[in-house]
Amino acid sequence: MPDPTPVLRRSALGITAGLIGWLIVVEITSGILQGYYVPLFSDIVVHLGITDADVNWFEAAQLLLSSIVVPVLAKLGDMYGHKKVLLIATVLTAGATWWVAFADNFWVFLIAWALQGFYVVWLPLEVALIFERGRRARHGVSATRRAAGLLVVGLQAGAILGALAAGRIFAATAEHLTVTLVIPAVAVTACFFVILFGVPESEPLPGRRLDTLGFVILTIGLLLVTGSLTFLRLSGPSFVWTWVLLAAGVAALVLFVRFELRQNDPAIDIRVFRRPEMWPVQVTAFLIGISLLGAQGPLSTYAGTDSALGYGLGLDATARSNLIGVYLVSLIVGAVLFAATSRRASPRIVLIGASALVGVGYLLFIPLHVELWQVLMNMVIAGIGSGALVAAMPAAAAAAAPRGQTGVASALTNTTKTIGGTFASAVFGVVLAAGVGAAASSTAASLGGYITVWAICAGGGLLAAVLLFFVPKVAFADEVPESADAVAGESQII
After folding, report:
1. How far is the C-alpha of 424 from the C-alpha of 99, rounded, in Å?
2. How confident is the model at residue 436 (pLDDT cuts 50, 70, 90)?
3. Which of 50, 200, 284, 472 is surrounded by the fewest CB atoms within 10 Å?
4. How many structural domains does the chain have?
5. What is the pTM for the complete model shown?
6. Residues 6+ apart with CB under 8 A from 121
7. How far apart are CA 432 and CA 311, in angstroms?
């Protein structure tokens, strides 16, 4: 009797290929959200009557909310179905994006921008959908990595589209900011229907529970730490409550770790961090989050800073769109290189090289930042490394996770990356605000502030590369060998 396995596998591959296609559309929308606003930050500053340094608080607020809600929603996805939670996150993101478009003051914009951060859970849920589908069809880990790499390509393509379109739409609407900001809201609304009609549901794992108390403790800890950074910015290091809140936040996070270690079904399985396949990925995600998420605002505002000050590029919204577009193209190149080399090169080597590129790219900013070509070169180097890392980390975490925890494991990389970005955004806000008005401008941050930002980003990338270098090679090896037939079949998805 002929073996039905190849037929079943081919059928499953077709379904998986269709799934990836729809999810790429979702990630294009996610990319639009990530790329569209960056070239407009200088104009948003003027519209709201704030300073360049205040942009970092938008990022910090959104990243803080993301770090809290992503593990919760990922856990709910594992429990009840990843598609259901993906739809909920999309509705919340759409509502917040419409709110951003019509916000007319700092605090309203801040709240709406923070709530928009629900979109960050899209990628972990999508990786979980692909990995669970692949696991049932007996696809290999490497094929899942390549599929996740394609999602990142879609994300960065959307970011390029958003970045290039933003400045042009702003100019075409006679610099009407509200009309310009309606465009991403329409895109997210359309994305809901793509998910509703195009994405199949995953198979939930019964018997799970939501560790509500654990999530509450984590939220309190993150809020206290971020609050301390806010007081540091507003009142300086001499304000006693800055350090009281920081100490209380650290204590809450320590309590969270101890509490989670006693739970049978924890909010975040801390024990997973002990695995050699997992902890290097999470440490790298945290360190890279510093530059990948925390430095977006400073890069945009630096490009828009009047060059008459002796630094900055003095670019308008359209030129900033082009600059960000080049950076995002480099992210795509990095993601494609990861997908192309994952079959031949060890993921460990790829992560080391990518982290080093991020560090070198930002390190070059310190001496080379006056000319446009210098900034472009630095951003491309860092972008290639960042693109490879974004593609590698969620899939590597999902591959190391036990069944029923792929959503949480993928989300852990986003959570640790987001936490790194959150703290970096807050610190960068403090650093840049310290020099506001230092040279002939009431809004521009000082050159010393920007150099400090670049140095911190460079240090994070280089430290990640060093740590990964000392990780045993076996930490990133596929645990389950793949047959030749499986590998041949998997290549058809990609």
Report:
1. 26
2. low
3. 472
4. 2
5. 0.70
6. 66, 69, 70, 73, 74, 85, 86, 89, 411, 414
7. 14
